[in-house]
Design a protein that fits this description.
heterodimer; A: alpha+beta; seven-stranded mixed β-sheet; two-stranded antiparallel ribbon; 12 helices; 9 strands; B: alpha+beta; four-stranded mixed β-sheet; 10 strands
Amino acid sequence: MNLDFSEEQKQLKEQVGRFLAENCPPAAVRAVLEGEQHHDAKLYKGIADLGLLGAAIPEEYGGVGLGQLELCVIAEELGRVIAPVPVASTVYLGAECLLHAGTEDQKSTWLPKIAAGEAIGCWAINEGSGRMRPEKVTASFENGKLNGTKSPVADGAIADFAIVLAKEGSGVSLCLVDLSGDGVERENLESIDPTRSQTKLTFNGASATRIGDAGDGWHIATQVMDKAAILIGFEQLGGADRALEMGRDYALERMAFGRQIGSFQAIKHMLSDMYVSATLARSNCYYGAWALASSAAELPLAAATARVSATTAFQHCAKNNIQVHGGMGFTWAFDCHLYYRRSNALALMIGSLSTWESLLIERMSTGNVEAAA
Amino acid sequence: MDFKDTPEEAKFRKEVRSWIDANAPKHLEAELKRASFGSSGLTSEDPIEAGKAWQKKKAEAGWACLHWPKEYGGGARTAMERVIWSQEEGPYAVLSSPFTIGHGMCGPTVMEWASEEQKEELLPPLASGEEIWCQLFSEPASGSDLAGLRTRAVKADDGSGDWIINGQKIWTSGAQNSDWGLLITRTDPDVPKHKGLTMFFLSMKTPGVKVVPIKQANGASGFNEVYFDDVRIPDAQRLGAVGEGWRVSLTTLMNERLSIGSGMSTGFPELFKFCMDAEVDGEPATADSGVRSKLAQFAVKQSGLKYTGMRAISALSKGETPGPENSIGKLVAGATMQELSMFALDLQGEAGVLWNEDSPQNGRFQAMLMRSPATRIEGGSDEILRNIIGERVLGLPGDIRVDKDVPFKDIPASGKGRS
């Protein structure tokens, strides 16, 4: 048994961590939060130049040809510094969807650009409030033209291409749109986490090509989101760990009533519960990483397990990090709110927590409960 | 990343599997698997006798106490081999539960602190299940604050060098079946509490030792009170120096946490099976979104513990040692069991109040509800475990101990000072 990353993967993690510590300090996150830009373009280029965007893209499409486990350790480090870059949209969802179901032409057009950091993608599935279901889709795809509105779309403001879920005949299909073409309107939306922007995309007869078979859109999207759930789970894990660390460091430094506040059991126990939830999430994410890398039949179950656990842990750690900091934690000047924002934004990306909880139980009902228990 | 055995591990697993297949008491398997929470589940045979028989068989074939050296009746196996053994032993492991404290805690303490002759005398019959040991530590006034214990040991005034013990222990698991006990006492009340303790071992048949089973909140009597009334034992039964008892007890406590926390189930698989059959408002329970949400949170705790265990096994297999982070096992499992059983009863509606053979899953959730409060306390309460994680894993400051440098006799005790 070896439920751990290899020495090479750990070295990669360390390298990425060092790069990000230097190039993505909290000031860089704040520059996006407080500025006009929707992401840190310089950082994104740096990440691309290191080959990280193409880590799991085959060499024939301009990638590095490593694997999903490498992507997991990269995701954890990006999550740790809550990097304001569109990696989830572009790589976990965009590139993975193209690799999974794209045509040769779609792959050779977009994957090399993704790997080089020259094309940003977005995942345009949602239409308004409430849990997404294929029956709710009103956008439509017919004769190569796309019509309708998708909102919210993460990173839609800066994306070069979109993968859109749209009605086609009696089913729903996924299609690929070059956003630089005609018939595309973007409207930026305010959100709880401006470091990963949200956009409304409106299509008026925009040219699009289908990904996969007609009517197979929801099925493909589900498979892609399962894989992305594990990678986003690693981002959440990195964020949870960092929030715990921030709380721990503050508890050691801050004095009150003549003692370090970390010596009070109320604080100590809160931090220890944060550690417990982050540890359970780590173990569940490793299970997800194994399923992802080995394309196990348990992947859907492992994905929902990792996702529920990581979402719960990041939210738990981020909110209690503020609590440990007391009033200082609620100020704009401290970084706690950056993690609080991101934890809640990630909790809603590719389906809310309750959606994934429901999926997990549905998958256990149809699969083998012993596998998870 | 993989869940596979190495070729050596696979070979060992095969060997274990074929021995268990040929030797396990298969007629008891169904009964052991039905075991209600907190009991061995055996009713067709005396659980102690059945346990002794299985332990003896294992010992004769070299499968007893795999973590002990061979000269003391152990198997001298690697950590990974022990893990594989316990995975393959499955439900039969329950049979050896009367020996858990002896094998996991008392044995290692004797091994570290006793003389060579004592080890040769005491350890082999413990390994082979002929003798059962208990741990005489907690007292009515000192559970989590173990070093606050009051059972006195004083030198006999006849110059024999013997010790005379007076006092009371409590929460002593399995004392009613035990042949030997590991006993911590106070030998000097004039020094701070950790410094005046001394450790002994004694036969539970020594005159003046009285064991009184405690009827617990769940109706069972696994724990006991043990009274010492002028119990005389020779100085040769002392473990470690006089006044060094705290240091000796740390050997026991460290081993206790390793052995209690590992591989606990939260009862989730049973809950899930129950929910597949139960109904809520005319629909299967698992179709209800509120039920799903609760179930999912229990599920990720159960699987989180399972894969945390597997990460620890992965570390063992690389030759690393598990550390205080393993305290999360019992912390998470205990609290989850309690919440989970309350949820299961809630789904049973008003009939959840009943605890009989018609109760779903043979009354398992009712049994768990009534036993889980103890799980959250024994072997380190939730609060003590949180302190361990906070202090030893996260590096937070230790609790302020106002009695640290005070002579024991001057420390206020419960009830005193209220006059």
